[in-house]
Amino acid sequence: MDPKKGINYLVDNKLLEWSSQPIAEFLYKEEGLNKTAIGDFLGDREEIHLQTLKAFVELHEFSNLNLVQALRQFLWSFRLPGEAQKIDRMMEAFATRYCDCNTDVFQSTDTCYILSFAIIMLNTSLHNPNVKDKTTLERFISMNRGINNGGDLPNELLTKLYDSIHSEPFKIPEDDGNDLTHTFFNPDREGWLLKLGGRVKTWKRRWFILTDNCLYYFEYTTDKEPRGIIPLENLCVREVPYQRKPYCLELYNPNKQKIKACKTETDGRVVEGKHQSYTICAVTAEERDSWIEAIRASITKDPFYDLVSIRKKKVINQAPQD
Fold first, then answer.
1. Helices 35-43 and 47-58 sit at what angle, rounded to 10 degrees?
2. Most buried among 62, 114, 173, 269, by the most CB within 10 A?
3. Binning pLDDT at 50, 70 and 90, where does residue 300 land?
4. 41 C-beta neighbours (distance < 10 Å), count
């Protein structure tokens, strides 16, 4: 269910008051709520959502916690959404609350904001098996130089934060249910397309869903689990000519490496895909171009990096000059 519709249902049936504080307390304290839905509701930019986010964050008590401890608590209470603007608002609210609870740790909320993202990215670097180049303590310290209003944070503080993440990754809440249907509530695009087989070059009609920087394909629209998943990170898309199939697009790795994808075999086994590229056919040129545009919009860098880059420039530009 759409979280807005869920809250509206409770309000309409006089089970909840349409006000930021009671809504925030409901989202924070009620057990069994979908953590992804909580994140989506809190990330909306309408005024009631912004007020609820502020009230929700203020229900967290961060006093005398180091930044990693506070982030563990905060990131367990909901699932961080994927949109950069939502992430920005939520992490800004977190940084403000943390600095209010710990007035003598950082010189500004910008410092807290930047370091929080650095910690989240460090967690990914150290604990994601797909990341081969692991961030060292020395690199972590170096990448955070000058973020404290132009000055450096103590190495002792950064070392303590690094060691905490190194020894224990963040626990990300997993929602109830054992299928992927919650992923596809608000896809960027969906529709029927023809997909060319990798080993056996035959065309098969598949239902495609584009969401969360991945392209999923299903045999039927009613299937709960996809036949295949194509992560779009580091891929490119282009229009390609194909004999007797005039409206084709191709997903490919510009480094000419095998695409890291997976598919489900007929016996139920999940295996690694063996495609160097994926050729997909639409019914019309307009539909093909629309899919290409949507896929290109989805193939983006991690929004964390863009957000941190913008904030670092702000801090450096505001630093007092000698």
1. 120
2. 114
3. low
4. 24
Among all chains, which residue has been given the structure tokens 């500004």?
A: 108
Contact at 8 Å (CB) between 202 and 160? no
Token pair of 106 as six digits: 């950082």
Where do the H-state alpha helices sit in the chain?
Answer: 3-12, 20-29, 35-43, 47-58, 67-76, 84-101, 109-127, 137-143, 155-167, 285-298, 303-318
CA 39, 44, 45, 50: dihedral to nearest 10 degrees? -50
Tens digits of residue pLDDT in 139-196? 999 999 999 988 999 999 999 999 999 999 888 776 544 334 445 555 788 899 999 9
Q: Active-site positions?
A: 83
Instruction: Determine contact, residues 94/78, Cβ cutoff 8 Å.
Output: no
Exposed, middle or buried, 180 (CB in 10 Å: 0-12/13-18/19+)?
A: middle
Contacts of 154 (CB under 8 A, 6+ apart): none
